[in-house]
Amino acid sequence: MAYYAALVSLLRTLEDSPQPMQHVLSDLHDKVGCLLGILEVDSSRKSSLSIMDFEGQIRDASFEAQDIIDSHISTQLELSESVSCGTLMSLDEVKGLQKVIDELASILSKIKDTKEEADQGAGNLWVAAGASRSVASNDNARPLGLDHDLLHLKDRLTGSSSNLDIISIVGMGGIGKTTLARNLYNDPLIENRFDTRAWVVVSQNYHVQEILTSLVNSTRQDGDQVHKKSVDELAVRLHKNLKRRRYLIVMDDVWDVKAWDVVKRFFPDDNNSSRVILTTRQSEVAMYANHRSPIHHMALLSPESSWDLLRETIFGQEDCPYALQEIGWNIAENCKGLPLAIVVTGGLLSKTARKKTGSALLKM
């Protein structure tokens, strides 16, 4: 899982870096965040991770960018006791980072092409920007460590307020926003409360027509799916589908306010306690969507919850052998409280353990 750790490390370096956020760094930040977002969404789908085909390239590119940034900071530290103001990067450093950006952009394009080919072959309604109810139907991910979050947000979803409420879940990539939203979406109490529900993954590179198509197909009251409709036709159809119905819409992985602007006016407020859940990494997006409603900030898992999640991912309901507990705690700690990192790491360790067990049985 070195490529995932490299991405997370690079993202944190970019967010904590003291130098001015030059355009090249902003572009790099967007590409890294988008890759982490794809991994989080793919993990929630329980499908083959197309991003896995590019592990080595992603890892090497992340390390290269990390080396350039670290070298720049070290140089500035040697020149001054403080780099709080920072200095602009050199031309060579910018060129080096631009090379990494171009490589990550190429990887993102290939991943998108792979997804489209696979989804067309399967006949799924997985539009480039995201998916509809099918994404949220996979409810096997246990929200370990999220009990408090679930209870709090259930209260908001089922609260007495009759106004349309926009509930924003904010946190970094891999922290569990999608898992939390999915468990809320699939909760029997929530499912029974709403007349209709829809789920759409927006992502960084979204298409308005595809978002609306997904929402319309999810909320339709007849058996016909919408094909090749204009944006205006889809907007009218969506508003009609939701009008006078208590609805729950999940807009997962929203990156900017424009994505919210293009759909919000088609969500009618009939004072019937309808709700919209919006997951995002950007607090400003959450504030823009609904500045009157409190933002739900996701917290990193505690060391205890991290270990419990790793142990359960590897061993299920069985106990972890005592001899492995110390190293297990260390592995969980190195995942820095990120549920996605723990689940993916645990899955790889579990797979390795099964292979070794199978090999041992064959030799008997």
From TrEMBL:
The keyword Transmembrane does not apply. InterPro entries: Apaf_helical, NB-ARC, P-loop_NTPase. Pfam families: NB-ARC (PF00931). Keywords: ATP-binding, Leucine-rich repeat, Nucleotide-binding, Plant defense. The keyword Transmembrane does not apply. Residues 152-319 form the NB-ARC domain. One of its GO terms (biological process) is defense response. This is Late blight resistance proteinR1A-10. It comes from Sesamum angolense.
